[in-house]
Amino acid sequence: MRTTSLALGTVTSASLSRASMLLQSTLASPLGDFIHLHGSSSEHRTAFTHFAEAMDPHLDRSAAAAVRARCREGSLATQTSGLAPGFVQANLVCVPKAHAFDFLNFALRNPKACPLLGVTTPGDPCPRNAAPGADLRTDLPKYKIWVDGEPAREVSDASEWWTEDMVGFLLGCSFSWEDKLADAGLTPRHMESPSGYSSATVPMFRTNIRNLASGPFGGDLVVSMRPYPASKLAQVSAITGAYPGAHGAPIHWGDPSLLGIGGSKPNGPEDWAAALAKPDWGDRVEIREGEIPVFWACGVTPQTAVAEAKIPLAITHAPGHMFICDLKDDELCVPVKPEEPP
User: CA-to-CA distance for 177 and 181, rounded, in angstroms?
Assistant: First the structure.
């Protein structure tokens, strides 16, 4: 029997046949719809609009505050997937006021990758609508400092680089719905651990899809990847699609080459493991037989924009090391009606 050696296992001719059947039974990828919407630029869309009411004062939000306190005191330096389940996690981008409008417009033009959750007053490090009392300079486990578009260093405290006119942006993160997937028996692969918490970071890949530019901010779309059986794609899409403020439903599943990952030549399931073996950020995960790689827009996307903009100074989270908001995931949920696509 013919075999083909791959980075994550061995594929036989029998499994190639099963892979062909898998492709035929898989739901059509949503990539075409995403490209059409992304390219239309017909309107600005954001996750910010549905925060119509103040946070419920009766909910216990101490778990989120406890994680931030550990970051502030320097005792937490790990990635945050799986921490403070039920609370919204956010990507962070901070830029001087002179560049803040262009970045705000960038987020509005790229809402799938940059769902806007909060914007601070220039010089004020507190994101008052998402976590009153928090401090964006100290309350993440790890930051990346950018100088002239280059990552200069990673630090656990960004106070030294915070300026009197710095504006902070909180952008939704897919970590916010990972516990919802786990509750449905769909635990993401990078989270699989007997303890329920893994130190692994979700794999992330730079794509061949250009962001819609605003001023100096452009760059390329970044996606995160989690593999699932073909039979679970509709369920996974419905669960995550209820959280547009956390990237929403997947933008693609199946052939990674359609996103420019692992080369641009179309390939079949037997090649996917090799194509996804070296993430640009995060950790490699196993893709098991019968599984399809599923891709979501990712909040590392603005870091490609910061790099391309080459502005003198910017502060971002280090990939996988998020800000934990006081907002609950359920407060971010926008239920999808059964008759509507996610």
Answer: 7
